[in-house]
Amino acid sequence: MTTETAPPAAKRVPSERTHHGDTVVDEYAWLAAKDDPETIAYLTAENEYTDARTAHLADLRADLFEETRRRTQETDLSVPTRKGGHWYYTRTVEGQQYGVHCRRAVRDGETDPPVSADGAPLDGEEVLLDGNLLAEGHDFFSLGAFDVSPDGRWLAYSTDFSGDERFTLRVKDLTTGELLPDEVPDTFYGSAWSTDASVLFYVTVDDAWRPNRVWRHTIGSPAADDVVVHQEDDERFWVGVELTRSEKFILIDVHSKVTSEVLVIPAGNPTGAPAVIAPRRQGVEYTVEHHGHRFLILHNDNAEDFALAFTSADVPGDWVPLIEHTPGTRLEAVDAFANHLVVSLRTDGLTGLRVLPVGSDDGYDIDFPEPLYSVGLDANPEYRTGRVRLRYSSLITPDSVYDYDLVTRQMVLLKQKPVLPGPDGRPYDPAEYEQHRDWALADDGTRVPISLVCRVGTPRDGSAPCELYGYGSYEASMDPWFSVARLSLLDRGVVFAVAHIRGGGELGRRWYDQGKLLAKKNTFTDFVACARHLVKAGWTTSDRLVARGASAGGLLMGAVANLAPDAFTGIVAQVPFVDALTSILDPSLPLTVTEWEEWGNPLDDPEVYAYMKSYTPYENVAAVDYPAILAVTSLNDTRVLYSEPAKWIARLRALAPGGDYLLKTEMGAGHGGPSGRYDSWREEAFINAWILDRIGSA
């Protein structure tokens, strides 16, 4: 990189806080003042500095963007999904940032989804919502709700134009195409219709951005008349709302990190009082799915990796076992259809699906061909059906949509995401790439899985560059996924690896429990162990290894930078949670109280405070030689505030001034970054160009 430009100077305004007898000085707390012109000026100056420092990568960024664009079928159409008398689908159009949401009437005798040549509109298409029209005049656009009423007449949808995840809810008459006067500001994700479509349920948040209320809105009435159906006052819990697939019940899900409670309202009696399926018990999680005369209960009551039971839908009571607990087989979800149940599960680090025919003991697991893959149910809105829609992919197999016949057990490929020829004009051939499962040995003797993909013939003599990705929180699993943009790295000789570290859910609930609270450091040491193993096994060398993570994975990036700065030549931290202790100490911030069951409560517990302070990245910046760091954040992010990486980069420059640290702030986006697909491709091209530059492959 060039060195002519000096970074902007971050002024130091010491701010003190004291907890459990410990006084901490924060010189950069002033950066949290989002509305202060000095803050905006500083972030703008940082962007200008980053632009100058990466100006030499402009041609490479353009090449990477163009490679992604050329490999993507820009005008495309998703596989239509049947609901009632219509097929629903989304189209993309070349040159347009957002999808066009459509439907087409089901024709007589039509059982298979209609297809379209080259993504062209289907004959008889009805456009429900065009994201490009909605986004006109806005730098950011996101849909929250998109919910067609059971009778197909109304569309409830919500929009966010800033990235702060507060949506305005509207209702469209699909018969006339007109918007109803109904409009509700400041709503959250989630909505549910009553059976007769006269009532719409939705969710709002409190001042800390916690979804805490479920409301009932009568179509045609002003929002001021809406009624709170459920309010959750315990700040550890959040709420959600949905209509069951059977369309018989409204479910209100109340959940903390470790405890849950579900309430139901008959969809045919939307003004009825919510009834509790089972009262909350600390440490017991359960979800509910309606199936005929019963409610299916997926739970962890004396079942670490969850079990499946049922109770009466008329008078919920005792839970009758359906699938007993099997240690090491994590049951993740159950989907009910009239004559079959489909259980989503994972075992040995891989996802799977188990089919349970109703009234039969002949349950079975669906087989899949690759050693590494991800599979799950796709949209399946129809309750009475003999087939289900699956979505499948791997590190070398593009996203694939299948219909699976629950009776004949035949799986039919409906569509695989097209991957068009790259710059050399050659079509994509998965046989030119190979995927591997490797295992690292953690400090405590635990075996940690690593998934890898590279071009066939990539040397194992340590000469190949490598990107190592990680997350490791919230029981979220980084299952193998396909990426068109990643091909540009693989074709330049880069090995892409995913560290399935503790704190995630890849190996069941115990894997998660061993990477949270006072065991959180396992997440970080596991990742370092994976990095060391890749070098030892000849995949790469530390001077050609870049680490990457986002959000809680950004916390991981900051932690490993302090823990093992010699293990990497570069680190990419996207919307990184690097000032975790400061945030978790402030219950007024978005999501803080709900996070205490993940990280611990440092306000009340001195042991948690000391433990978090010992690993949180911002607190532990030291005068050492750090790898180059690229931090990417968004001004309107409500989940991880932009100020966390801004402060982190400033402190890195002050305490370890010899390093190469860049901060890039999206000034009109949220936690997920830019919203349009072309803008997202440009962001990915920016990051990948920086990575290639660091590993000497630019």
TrEMBL record:
Record-level GO BP terms: proteolysis
Top-level lineage group: Bacteria
Region described as Disordered: 1-20
Domain Peptidase S9A N-terminal: start-end pairs: 8-416
Domain Peptidase S9 prolyl oligopeptidase catalytic: 481-696
Family indicated by similarity: Belongs to the peptidase S9A family.
Name of the protein in its database record: Oligopeptidase B
Organism the protein comes from: Micromonospora inaquosa
Upper taxonomic lineage: Bacteria, Bacillati, Actinomycetota, Actinomycetes, Micromonosporales
